[in-house]
């Protein structure tokens, strides 16, 4: 496993590095970046398996770093912040971050978050029921992990793909918030409704002809979401 730790505080980088090496031992390689520009460059050249990214950096902030990395990579990103600010969390998720942890944090919490993110991006064995799901103009290929809309390929992150697959496999059925969160993020995320809202919005922006008036991914207010077959 190759990790990129991005923080301008050397002691934070050291603590995170030690935690990672305790977990993965000799199989773990930890790269460090202390500025945003350095982080973007290392993400492009070293292709890490996961990035742990602080928001407060001396040049580019973590949001801008995340946005730039998402232009060329779907690498999982776990964002760090010293502020327990709901808007920071939502903004990070909207820019493509996979998860969020607030400083100060314990090593057990950090490892739980890292394991959850890595679990979500692993390619699962395709479930029974066919490798392709076709509803309207949307085609989801489970084996290839590809999605097309009207014949045009659409790039999805692993979490976006997993969420869409859950919705399309259960087309016509309302899936409660807690069910979707547990199936896609893990049971420990059942109460993280903001995560689900952000990812639903991202899917609509990528798949719907008019994201403000969705045809496919519909909201059952107060309950959950469902995928409609036009």
Strand neighbour order, sheet with most strands: 2-1-3-4-5
Order of helices and strands: EHEHEHEHEHEEEEHEHHEE
* Mean pLDDT value: 90
General form: globular
Number of strands: 12
**Contiguous runs where pLDDT drops below 50 for at least 5 residues:** none
Largest beta-sheet characterization: 5 strands, parallel
Beta content: 15-25%
Radius of gyration, taken over Cα atoms and rounded to an integer in Å: 18 Å
Task: Count structural domains.
Answer: 2
CATH architecture of the largest domain: 3-Layer(aba) Sandwich
**Helix proportion range:** 40-55%
Distance between the termini: 43 Å
By CATH reckoning, the class of the largest domain would read Alpha Beta
What would the CATH topology of the largest domain be?
Answer: Rossmann fold
Number of helices: 8
The CATH homologous superfamily of the largest domain: Response regulator
Give the helix/strand class: alpha/beta
Short summary of the structure?
Helix content is 41%, strand content 21%. The protein has 230 residues and is an alpha/beta fold. Strands 2-1-3-4-5 form a 5-stranded parallel β-sheet, sandwiched between helices. Strands 6-7-8-9 form a 4-stranded antiparallel β-sheet, covered by helices on one side. The protein has a 3-stranded antiparallel β-sheet with strand order 10-12-11.
């Amino acid at each position: 496993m190759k990790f990129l730790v991005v923080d301008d505080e050397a002691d934070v980088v050291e603590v995170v590095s030690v935690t990672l090496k305790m977990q993965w031992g000799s199989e773990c390689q930890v790269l460090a970046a202390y500025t945003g520009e350095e982080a973007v460059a290392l993400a492009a050249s070293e292709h890490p398996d996961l990035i742990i990214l602080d928001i407060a950096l001396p040049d580019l902030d973590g949001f801008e770093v995340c946005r730039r990395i998402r232009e060329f990579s779907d690498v999982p990103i776990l964002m760090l912040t010293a502020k327990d600010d709901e808007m920071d969390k939502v903004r990070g998720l909207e820019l493509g971050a996979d998860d969020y942890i607030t400083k100060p944090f314990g090593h057990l919490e950090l490892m739980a978050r890292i394991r959850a993110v890595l679990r979500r991006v692993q390619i699962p064995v395709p479930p029974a029921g066919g490798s392709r799901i076709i509803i309207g103009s949307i085609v989801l290929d489970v084996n290839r992990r590809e999605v097309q809309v009207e014949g045009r390929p659409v790039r999805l992150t692993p979490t976006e793909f997993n969420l869409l697959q859950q919705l399309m496999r259960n087309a016509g059925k309302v899936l409660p918030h807690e069910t979707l969160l547990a199936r896609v993020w893990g049971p420990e995320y059942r109460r993280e409704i903001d995560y689900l809202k952000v990812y639903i919005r991202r899917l609509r922006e990528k798949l719907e002809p008019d994201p403000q008036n969705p045809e496919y991914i519909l909201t059952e207010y107060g309950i959950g979401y469902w995928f409609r077959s036009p």
